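Model the whole thing, not chain by chain.
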Amino acid sequence: MKDIKPAILLLTLFTVICGGLYPAVVTGLAQTFFPEQAHGSFIKDQTGRVAGSELIGQPFSTPEYFWPRPSATGEFAYNPLASSGSNAGPTNPAYLKTVGERLHVLREAGLSAPLAADLAQASASGLDPHISPAAAQAQIPRIARARGLNEEVVATAVTSRIEGKQLGFLGAERVNVLALNLQLDTMSP
Amino acid sequence: MSEINDIIPAVALLLLLMLLVKPMGSYMHKVYQGERTLLSPVLAPCENILYRLGGIDRDEEMGWQRYATAMLLFNLTGFAALFMLLLVQHLLPLNPQNLPPFSWQLAVNTAVSFTTNTNWQAYSGEATASYLTQMAGLTVQNFLSAATGMAVLIALIRGFARRRAATIGNFWVDMSRGALYVLLPLSLAGAIFLISQGVIQNFAPYQTVPLVQVFSYDKAQVDEAGKPLTGTDGQPLLATVIVDQVTIPMGPVASQESIKELGTNGGGFFNANAAHPFENPTPLSHYFEILLILLIPAGLTYTFGLMVGNTRQGWALLAVMLLLLAVSFAVLYWAESSGNPLVTRMGVAGPNMEGKEVRFGLAGSCLFEVATTATSCGAVSAMHDSLTPLGGLVPLSLILLGEIVFGGVGSGLYGMLAFAVIAVFVSGLMIGRTPEYLGKKIEVREMWMSIIVILTAGVVVLILSGAAMITPAAVSSMANPGAHGLSEVLYAMASMANNNGSAFAGLNANGSFHTLLGSLAMLIGRYVPAIAILAMAGSLAGKKYVPPSLGTLPTDKAPFALWLTLVILIVGALTFFPALALGPIVEHLTMTGGK
């Protein structure tokens, strides 16, 4: 049992190193080299007011804004305090009913079939800031009508906001919904 | 063509991994042989201070019993410290949200979960754990449980490499050097890279931001006891809540994110784990995290080869792992890109996007889910519960095989070596040759220990899943009806008994049944095989070296690698096929048959 002493002492020492020094050093380097990222990549609107984080989606639902993906976060959609996916199984009848209701709302809003999967199905985090380019393009007529803008003007805004694959080959093409909507607010009708 | 473009990054990542195997493996070889490394000028003084303060004689050698005792004592101490921290986090600093303490059941489950390298999470990080808990509790165990797994593996390899020896190394030295020289520098570099991509790292309180577009929703009213209130007409009473601002959680995320992937721990800072944009903001951070998950397990195969004096032995095992990983990825990618026919029928185009993030791309999501369950990581960037039935079968099967395809840091390769011992023995019986592996005779004791390593988790999974099926409290925890509910329970038990930690997360795992029985499953699944491995190491170390002869089966050649693959698949299929048939396979048939 002479190994009890090293067990306690090593645990204490490693708690100081890995649980104290290491996060402190990482934080220090982060504040020095990447202060904006380390604090959550917050972005501002045209008036200079903080409008949220470009990494955390927001629950847009009115006709004049691009809509994000469905969200299954706790209490209400896009609640950053309760990140979560739906965890719905693929054959769950309640889930299939929900998808049907979402599709109904999208069709009422003038989106035509076939609909992009990311607009019908909820994200993993419930905070996904992006939609696919197809999901954004399908919403252009609705936005143009609601804002009294020319469809081509809105389409140009969408195209300018399409982020390509990272380094040219990683991940998927995507559109940041919050950034796109903030850009819409700067455009006069 | 789009599929090919989609798969290129996955192939590129695996190629990069293969290029890193040799440098990574050589470096770890130096670390565990006690040699000087590139980082010694900085770290050797730290190491010496650790030994001096800890009262450790670095040259002292341990027999297997003492090695195992030290390992258990160290993990027990770690458990006790973390358990207490969880119970008193509300009294300690670095708790800007004034989060309350964990309940004792949840504290037991969480402390067991992090000391066993499982990182099963029955709680939601952003709503439950203070910054101090995340750093000084969970992050510390991420390092130490990983270093423990690697130490046990190194002891086993020494058992093969040493001749007529009574000892297998010094646990304190192996554990300390693994944490200090391997995990710490890589985590530090990884964390900085992740921050550059947008992973947060700060000690600020949660930030409140106004929403660009205000919205409202109907919230069910509850009384003081939390029961829903109903109006005079018997309908639930609703009140309209206007949401004009939201609260965004903050915290030291990056420092935990990098070790959680590197140490194949997997416990997320946030509930959504590596799907959360603050844990995994870009496609590049996503592929980088996959690389971190696979890096050490892949490198250890080369360390193994160097230690036993024949690197081809390590490459043979790596080939088996790579084959199983590639096949798993292909099946998962095919299943998910085919979409969910029940949703497609409603006029939706594209793959199954439920529970997936747009930025990662489909192939990226699939590769992450395969890597995280092939190892014992259990971090997720897509929700496994929402995968198609055959898609969900892939991570479930990888876990049930015992996480030996790369596997947890240390634990994966020692599981694979147990399978290799069995493969050698069975082939020896079939072709009438003396079973030998790496110059050591495989005898009754080695067979016993290998069988314990391989079957422990399976026995626990099947018994506990059965128990859950006849326990009303456990049945009511299922989130999805029908065959999918069985998959949820089977996955939960598999994940805990194999120390993975990912979940079909619809299952409400916070009930007493799952927290306490699950804790037991995690303990048995971690320590019974680890002790059996150390016992086998002790027995092998004492044997003399038998030089290869004409009667020796070559274990560094392709035929043995294929044979080993078959043995793994046959053992897995014999143990779990009935359960898998009733869960994912039935669900697939109902889905495609349109009921």
